[in-house]
Amino acid sequence: MKKPRVGIAVPTLGIPSEVWILRQCLEFERIEPVLLHWSVRPGGAETPPELEAVKFSTAFERRRTPWLKIRRRLGSPSAIWPDAAQAEDIRRVVAETGVEAVLCHFAWTGLRVSKALVDGPPVVWQVHGRDVSALMRDKAYCRGIAAELPGLQHLVAVGRFQLERLRPYGLSERHSVIPCGAPLSLFAQKPLPLRAEGQPLRFISVGRISDEKGVLETLRAFEQTAERHPDIQLDYVGDGPLADELRRAIAASPVADRVRMRGLLAPSQVAEVLSSGHVYLQHSREVNGWVEGFGVTLTEAGAAGLPLIASRLGGIVDQVRPGENGFLFEPGDVAEQAAQMTLLAGDEDLRRRMGAAARRVAETFDSRLMTRQLEDVLLSAVDGVRSGS
After folding, report:
1. What is the DSSP letter of 309?
2. What is the DSSP string of 7-71?
3. Which of 1, 32, 164, 269 could be bridged to 265 by S-S, CB 3.0 to 4.6 A?
4. Hey, which residues does 205 pair with through a beta bridge?
5. Does position 351 have pLDDT exceeding 90, yes or no?
6. Under 8 Å CB-to-CB from 326, ≥6 apart: which residues?
7. Which pLDDT tens digit goes with each residue over 153-187?
8. Nearest-5° angle of CA 315, CA 174, CA 321?
9. What is the pLDDT of residues 286-315, one digit of tens each?
10. pLDDT tens-place string over residues 219-276
């Protein structure tokens, strides 16, 4: 039987921090994904040629007319819905591609697609981080979610905290927790990292170089740890709006010679860096309402066999089991982060035990396993239409 075609709707293709979208599409086995998008990130990750991608002709963001601004300030969900041209464009593309269901990444995508496809194929939302945290301060946005959520075909959240955020807005029983995960085939292909005698202990941090990722706090925690353990190093992997400020902070730091910024790397290069490290760090912070959805890089690092030291925020608590595969600290608590780093820097046996446990926990978040679960949801939506239920 021919695989059902399912649209995968996302505002922009190629955003480095959203590489999991392409991974997900490549791992689908029982459906044929069709990427539906409004724009492509210049210089971003390229879409593999084997994936079909179709671009909408209208822009994702509506033109901000004075009347639209007034409606948004008044909290009217009509300011969030697609206008007539956008809605017609969505219906046209869906009809021309012949997709039997649409998976919308992020609630803001779902709001547009669901409204446009009232009488169309079923729509499933997968919510992540900012779309159910920072944006929830917008009254019009929240009212739009409250209007669509109760009748949604299915909602997929990457963590438990997203469900709690959405429960007051009419969350139905048609929901699942399915994290994005990470491919163990890439990140767990090497043996568990061993620290050779005399080798510096390397801390790794991968992610967007931004305020919400706590990169400056991690540097301060590293400085405190280095006072007791001069044989340690810190590598940052990624890029972002705080990159220049972080470079200046490193240059002025007493441990500048032990810190490197490696820039944006391809997934295979990230896997290589993680396999050469010993402990993974992630100091996510709530900034302007943003909350970490699911730390994909935490699963990648755990798969590589690195103990995890991370802040207790959002979906991170689903991934780190304190005392087993790592430690959690309160966001902003640099002293506690440094204490946990100091503990692992001075206890090789504990570090190795936690590294082995981190790989075992990461196996439960293998992206292929997560994709199979997501496929079950999407196939159920398609089957419901085919059976007329």
Report:
1. E
2. EEEEEEE--GGGHHHHHHHHH-SSSEEEEEEEEE-TTSPPPPTTSEEEE-SS-SSPP--HHHHHH
3. 269
4. 236
5. yes
6. 280, 302, 307, 308, 309, 310, 320, 354, 358
7. 999 999 998 999 999 999 999 999 999 899 999 99
8. 25
9. 998 888 988 999 999 999 999 999 999 999
10. 999 999 999 999 999 999 999 999 999 999 999 999 999 999 999 999 999 999 999 9
Which residue reads 């199979």 in tokens? 372
pLDDT of residue 236: 98
User: For residue 227, what are the contacts with CB-CB under 8 A and spacing of at least 6?
Assistant: none
* pLDDT tens string 109-141: 999 999 999 999 999 999 998 999 999 999 999
How far is Cα 287 from Cα 309, in angstroms, rounded to an integer? 20
Helices (H) and strands (E) in the chain, counts: 14, 13
Tell me how far apart the alpha carbons of residues 329 and 346 are, in angstroms, rounded to a whole number.
19
Q: Which letter does DSSP use for residue 250 in this model?
A: H
- Say if CB 171 and CB 349 are below 8 A apart: no
205 near 280, Cβ under 8 Å? yes
Cα-flanking dihedrals φ and ψ of residue 103, to 5°?
Answer: -100, 120
pLDDT digits (tens, 9 = 90+) for 44-60: 888 999 999 999 999 99
- Cα–Cα distances in angstroms (integers) from residue 324 to residues 28, 337, 370, in the given order: 32, 16, 22
Output the pTM of the full model: 0.90
The residue whose two tokens read 């353990």 is 229
CA distance 36 to 122: 15
Asked if 303 contacts 359 with a C-beta cutoff of 8 angstroms, the reply is: yes
DSSP state letter for 189:
S
Compute CA 173 distance to the chain's CA centroid, rounded to the nearest angstrom: 24
Residue 56 and residue 37 in contact, taking contact as beta carbons nearer than 8 Å: yes
Task: Give yes or no for a contact between 117 and 53, defined as CB atoms under 8 angstroms apart.
Answer: no
